[in-house]
Amino acid sequence: xxxxxISNIKTGTEKRxxxxxxxxxxxxxxxxxxxxxxIRKAESIRGKKSLLxxxxxxxxxxxxxxxxxxxxxxxxxxxxxxxxxxxxxxxxLEKVAKKPARKVPxxxxxxxxxKDELMNLPKPRVAIVSLTSCEGCQFVLLDLGExxxxxxxxxxxxxxxxxxxxxxDNLQLDLVLVEGNPxxxxxxxxxxxxxxxxxxxxxxGNCAAMGGVPEIKNYQKGKSTIKHVYKYIQGISNPEIKExxxxxxxxxxxxxxxxxxxxxxxxxxxxxKGNVPQIPDQAVCLECRKKGNKCLLLEQKPCFGPMILGxxxxxCPTARMGCQGCRGLRPxxxxxxxxxxxxxxxxxxxxxxxxxxxxxxDDLEEKEKKExxxxxx
Amino acid sequence: xxxxxxxxxxxxHGDVKSAKLEVKEGIRLIEGVLIGRDYRDMxxxxxxxxxxxxxxxxxxxxxxxxxxxGVTVTPETKKLRTLMEYAQxxxxxxxxxxxxxxxxxxxxxxxxxxxxxxxxEAKMAIKVREYGMSIVKxxxxxxxxxxxNEVGGFKKAPDTEELxxxxxxxxxxxxxxxxxxxxxxxxxxxxFSRETEYICLGKNGEYAVYDGDVISSFGLxxxxxxxxxxxxxxxxxxxxxxxxxxxxxxxxxxxxxxLNNSHEKLRPEAAKYLASLGWSFPDYNPFHNILSQMVELxxxxxESKKIISELLNCDLSxxxxxEYKIREGSGSAAVEAPRGTLYYHxxxxxxxxxxxxxxxxxxxxxxxxxxxxxxxxxxxxxxxxPKEREKKLRAFxxxxxxCISCAVH
Lengths: 377, 409
Known about the structure:
The complex is a heterodimer.
Chain A: H1 2-6, H2 12-27, H3 32-45, H4 50-62, H5 66-70, H6 72-75, E1 78-79, H7 90-98, H8 115-120, E2 125-130, H9 136-142, H10 146-154, E3 156-158, E4 173-179, H11 185-197, E5 198-204, H12 206-210, H13 216-219, H14 225-229, E6 252-254, H15 261-272, E7 275-276, H16 284-290, H17 315-318, H18 335-342, H19 348-357, H20 361-376
Helix pairs in contact in A: 2-3
Chain B: E1 5-12, E2 15-23, H1 30-34, H2 41-46, H3 54-69, H4 75-105, H5 111-117, H6 119-140, E3 149-150, E4 153-154, H7 160-185, E5 197-202, E6 213-216, E7 221-222, H8 227-230, E8 231-234, E9 243-246, E10 251-252, H9 255-262, H10 268-277, H11 288-312, E11 329-337, E12 340-348, E13 354-360, H12 362-381, H13 386-400, H14 404-408
Parallel strand pairs in B: 5-10
Antiparallel strand pairs in B: 1-2, 3-4, 5-6, 6-7, 8-9, 11-12, 12-13
């Protein structure tokens, strides 16, 4: 059975490779070259083609509907808890397809788990950690009301500081959700500590993922922001704002300022299983149009919808507030195209100013460099 | 409690030398990051100071900018904003009363257990909270960090059908809060009292929230613009919360302050409930802040019902932003937040860029008062065993409902 073989991956190097791969994948930016290199490296480690076998085995063992495999952006799932890896990335799939075909059963029937067996399974241990922030993302969860408490009942919730004051013990965690910026030394230590204990770590919202409004100070000249606020600045920790992935590996991001409660409930079941879902690469515009909104851009009102990752139910444009990009750039979006569209509505400076609000500006500059490179090639 | 805090009180021979709240939250410099930015960014950025009370930061910053640029808004806009603020107070109070504070008085160490032991009451509290949230959502577009309110009015008028639905629901909610009120009467509140000055907004004929002058129980009565010249913001070395004092002394804001100063302006059901508590004013028991929130919860549910019916009888398209001129100027504004008076001051340059911002939050204002209270309270609990003492202290601090995210910003 493929499954057994796969769970034998135990060498540190293999694990590291897997982890790296997953990190790159979840970030959605992986160069063809890197994939090739990784696969070659993997092959050399564990006999010939062994990781590829795992990947193939994983594909089969984990395959759900055939359609899912054919539309990678809809349901790309990478398992971390169980080292079966399903990779639907076209590049990797192509690689796999080119290898001599091995006979594998088309579908692996899962034995139907009995209900009481499921009931006896230990609940997944989840921690919600709040670093320096407005705690708005936690309130989005709390605001789900009874639905949130249903969720709480289904897990073993550790250290949800806002409603519980119990000290947590040092057990392994299945999932850690991190909200806010690591500003104080204590914040950074907490972050590293929970990462070490977590199977899966997800960023909860814009501050953790992109820096949020506090990151504006990174863009300000002279770094004198603090002097506007405090007379005595000695002894006050005022580091540059850095996203949490500068300190720890992040497996998944719940984007937005604040996060979207419905989206949270949608992706939670997969995360609790130890899988990392992928948010479909669709613009905010898609949901906006579905809602029947008049396009703000057509009214000459700035809106970043076309280049920003959807999934928020277009909540801002629906309230006639132009999208300012709190969910981050979507992989396939074009910054160049967006700039061209906005040219008649705002100056470059105004555009850049708005991209600072949710820490979009650094990502944008990076992407523009990439776009330039691509077009010059 | 909202935010990270620890409490240090060094007690030597039963004598309280110092009681100091230690804040573990990091700084975000919201005032600093606003400088040099477009005025339209201010409500967006400033409301992100706090995830529980973004509405009040949004409204107050917008009012300050309007005052700075001389922008006037329609009475309908004012009404709609007032309703949004009532709703903000309703959902914040419902949360604090039941989920953040009650466990302390029922001798429980966590609130999930509280929900298991008091399922009926928990449901009621959630229902009331959801009522408040639904109002914010209908008006603002969403609950945490609302979207529609802006300088000059609203980007979009709320759906009247949705407002009507809320109005229909309000009678049921009033019954629910009254039931919840009866439940809260049964909790045992410690007896403790220390005289202090109560400060809040005051206005003729109404329980002031959206606007008014700054008034105090010791007779102060000034316009909002004079706030900064009457109250002193202090930063101690190595401290990230700037404390505020009035005439060199600590003072109290929030539900208990509003009730002390304006209790005769409550709506009928809230007044009836308050009478049944049998308090005499001035009331100086800080634990009573919890029941004061309960009184306010009833009052604001009644108010919300009244104001929604008024809004449904006027032309709601009047709330949509009309054209205005960007002008240089300075402006300030104050609004009653769930935890007390929130004050904003802003200077804007001729192009609409922000020159200077000052934000004074309720928690920053009552922090010194909390420390003074705790210093007075410690001798009463000094002989308890350490665990019990810690519990009592925690209950005390939580009764204040401090919001550290707001206090640090």
